[in-house]
Design goal:
Strands 22-21-20-19-25-24-23 form a seven-stranded antiparallel sheet. The protein is of the alpha+beta class. Helix 5 (about 345-360) crosses helix 8 (about 455-475) and helix 18 packs across helix 19 (about 710-720). Helix content is about 30%, strand content about 25%.
């Protein structure tokens, strides 16, 4: 007869003591040779354990101690089987409660929306309580429910930025509706910008240091209006600061006269996707000086009243002084939180874009007949449009008449002409665009830096206007929708939006260079590679054509571990931007003649590709047939099952974003997933409940483990919509 006799738990290392008896109730001496199975489970996961058998004392030889480590609170199930049969009372259950609160493991989540650790700004309204959620955890990360004793242990220290004077905020603490977390209700009776620290028993809480912007009622109203009109044409007058440090030491404030430490008057434009700094030539022609994404990796640091610096890690931080700074930064914060919470969709932005584009350009009635020579599609199309039509004619419906053909255009010829023209403009054969890897037909196309500029710039401007015409036609309704048949590089699309490129674009645009060189430099010390701050260019026969300094005297400056990121940034600027800047500017000029830059800024470069090129027809069954799995573990099989269930429910737009997230482009080869090289790979990631990640140079998707399919769907949708940059959250 076997029985469960004793079970004791010592701290977080419980010991289960089992005593075994014969049927006549005499002790049974147990040994490792006995067929006894002990299984300890928690959340469907097997917990490792160790055994200790009997002892020297005859009375202890019928005992077996089983030790296991408890790090996660919850219910543990202990099953004991002897000769394949459960002993009396098995399985046994034991609940373990969390330990004491550890401030270093506790986190501040925010109020209403999560206050992610990448963006630590809290917007409050003066003299109104604002909730801040604190998730208390023990040293093992277990969530500790609120208790009456803990309430008095919390405090929030507030200091005005630019001052050492502490401000005592009003603080009310209460548990949330689920009884899982504490809500700290904070009220400031002062307006302005402050540094705040949440503490527990005098120790700062993890992620509990943040900036507070306290808005007065008028400022809060302005932010509400910005969000209501979706930040269309929202701008603020400002001044560029020559030196952030000197401006902080200068005690003067904004005035009608320009202090000596300011460069010039500029304008800060904030949209749903970008924060851009612009000035104007001759007071009428806009010129973008800097562009930053609305994303967590864009860091904004507040200084004395009106002054802030903004940087994204790829370009030098820019110091700006703006009278409406608090409104501008609060708008930025709300836009960021709306992205993280998933409250905006591509369809919503596309509808908004189409509506506003039609309002901006109006509707032009009537038709324009274009006479096109099919054999000279590019030249004859240029002659029939740019050299013949006025600006307003581009808004009318084009009717196509091909030379020496009798066809009547009821829409089909127009679409055929547009596809032929796109092929002539954007294929490598045109000489206007090129692939970084000319031997790889799936490579993305990029403006060709080696073409004869005197002849080609006019065709780049023409190409931009054609794309603008495509977007305008699509805005007029589905019956006139046109999609650009091209696979543009990410860096080219980013520059159309005024964004600065970085070395990370090589992973999608020039995969061979990224695998062969960039990845090696990022992950290792480059001193053995004997690199210098110069780029050598070779012809097809491998002969050196020229060597270009990436910075003054660059060919004499070695690349080291300390300066390699500067080298990669300058290399990206040269290869992806400055070498073809005139071509990109010409294309953007033609595009912006029909589509205003501020409307395009609603999108990022990934969404811009979807807007221009459409989604095509993506088949989930085709993807299931042509992919590789790099993990055969049983736990990952459950994740894969969840993944395919989620993907089956995706719309075509969401499938396009998924393909874009994994491969770098939403456009598949003509043969679908079967022709992708390499084929899409799905692998496990060594993290839990974090965002999925992707390596576009390998067409690889990395899936972390998740507690539920709902959590996986939430994180996957957020990753494919906003995960291109800056959202590697845990």
């Amino acid at each position: 007869m076997y029985s469960w006799r004793k079970m004791s738990f010592w701290n977080m290392k419980p010991i289960c003591t089992n005593s075994f008896y014969r049927m006549n109730l005499f002790p049974y001496p147990v040994s490792p040779d006995d067929p006894i199975l002990i299984e300890i489970m928690h959340n469907d996961t097997l917990v490792a354990s160790s055994r200790e058998y009997g002892g020297e004392n005859w009375g202890r030889k019928n005992t077996m101690k089983v030790s296991f480590t408890v790090r996660e609170a919850g219910t543990y199930r202990i099953s004991i089987l002897a000769r394949g049969m459960p002993i009396r009372g098995s399985p046994f259950k034991k609940d373990f409660l969390p330990g004491t609160i550890d401030p270093s493991k506790s986190v501040v989540l925010g109020g209403g929306s999560h206050l992610w650790n990448h963006w630590t700004l809290l917007e409050v309204q003066k003299s109104i309580y604002t909730p801040l959620t604190v998730e208390a955890r023990d040293k093992f990360g277990n969530i500790c429910p609120p208790s009456r004793e803990d309430v008095n242990s919390y405090a929030v220290e507030v200091t005005e930025i630019g001052s050492s004077v502490n401000i005592d905020p009003k603080l009310v603490i209460s548990p949330d509706g689920d009884g899982k977390n504490n809500i700290l209700h904070i009220k400031l009776d002062w307006g302005g910008c402050f540094n705040a620290v949440v503490k527990y028993n005098g120790v700062p809480v993890s992620q509990g240091q943040f900036t507070v912007i306290s808005l007065n009622s008028e400022e809060a109203k302005q932010v509400d209006e910005n969000m209501k009109k979706q930040c269309l044409n929202v701008w603020y007058e400002a001044y560029l600061v020559r030196n952030a440090e000197s401006s902080q030491t200068n005690g003067s404030s904004l005035s009608s006269s320009t202090p000596p430490w300011m460069i010039s008057r500029v304008y800060c434009y904030i949209s749903r996707k970008h924060l851009s700094i612009e000035d104007f030539y001759i007071k009428i022609i806009p010129h973008r000086l800097y562009g930053f994404r609305v994303q967590p990796s864009t860091k904004i640091i507040l200084h004395r009243p009106g002054l802030f610096t903004v940087g994204d890690g790829y370009q030098s931080p820019v110091a700006i002084i703006c009278k409406e700074r608090n409104v501008l930064i609060a708008t930025f914060s709300r836009l960021l939180l709306s992205k993280v919470s998933g409250s905006e969709s591509f369809d919503d932005k596309k509808y908004f874009f189409y509506r506003e584009l039609v309002v901006h350009l109006g509707r032009k009635e009537g038709e324009v007949t274009l006479k096109i020579d099919r054999q000279k599609i590019l030249e004859s199309s240029y002659q029939a449009t740019v050299m013949t039509l006025c600006s307003s004619d581009w808004l009318r419906l084009f009717k196509i008449k091909f030379k020496d053909e009798l066809g009547v255009d009821w829409g089909g010829l127009r679409r055929q002409w547009f596809e032929l023209l796109c092929k002539a403009l954007f294929s490598q054969e045109s000489g206007l665009f090129t692939r970084f890897n000319e031997d790889y037909p799936q490579a993305l196309v990029h403006p060709n830096p080696k073409g004869p500029l005197s002849k080609m710039l006019q065709f780049y401007e023409f190409a931009g206007r054609v794309v603008g015409k495509c977007l305008y036609e699509s805005a007029l309704g589905s019956s006139r929708r046109l999609n650009v048949k091209a696979r543009f590089s990410r860096s080219f699309l980013a520059q159309l939006l005024g964004l600065r490129v970085s070395y990370k674009y090589f992973e999608s645009d020039d995969k061979d260079l990224y695998r062969r060189k960039i990845k090696c430099i990022v992950e290792t010390d480059p001193e053995d590679l004997a690199l210098v701050f110069a780029e050598e260019e070779y012809d097809r026969q491998g002969r050196l054509e020229k060597s270009v300094d990436l910075k003054p005297g660059g060919r004499h400056i070695p690349v080291t571990e300390s300066n390699k990121m500067e080298y990669l940034d300058l290399l990206a600027q040269y290869r992806l931007s400055s070498s073809c800047k005139q071509q990109i500017d010409a294309f953007a000029k033609g595009l912006n003649e029909l589509v205003p830059e501020n409307l395009l800024s609603v999108f990022d470069e990934y969404e811009l590709e979807l807007l221009m090129c459409g989604t095509g027809d993506i088949s989930v069954s085709d993807l299931r047939q042509h992919h590789n799995v790099i993990d055969s573990g049983s736990s990952f099989k459950k994740s894969l099952d969840w993944f395919w269930t989620i993907v089956k429910s995706f719309t075509q737009d969401e499938l396009a974003r998924l393909v874009q997230f994994i491969t770098g482009s939403s456009q598949l080869p003509p043969g679908g997933f079967a022709e992708l090289s390499p084929q899409i790979q799905i692998s496990s990631a060594p993290t839990t409940d974090s965002l999925p990640s992707a390596h576009t140079c390998f067409n690889q998707l990395c899936l972390p483990s998740y507690s539920s399919s709902t959590e996986m769907q939430k994180k996957l949708v957020l990753a494919i919509n906003e995960g291109s940059e800056g959202f590697s959250m845990v």
